[in-house]
Amino acid sequence: MNLKLFCFALIALPGVLHAQQTQDSTEKSWTGFVEADYYFIPADEIHPTITASVDHKALHLEARYNYEDFNTASFHVGYSWQKDGDFSVTATATGGIAVGLSNGILPGFECSADYSKLSFYSENEYMFAFNGKENNFFYSWTQLSASIFKNVSVGVSAETLKLYKTKFDVQKGVYAEYAAGKFLFDVYYFNPFSQYNYVVGSVAFNF
Question: Which residues have a Cβ under 8 Å from the Cβ of 136 and sit 6 or more positions away?
Answer without folding.
Answer: 104, 126, 127, 128, 129
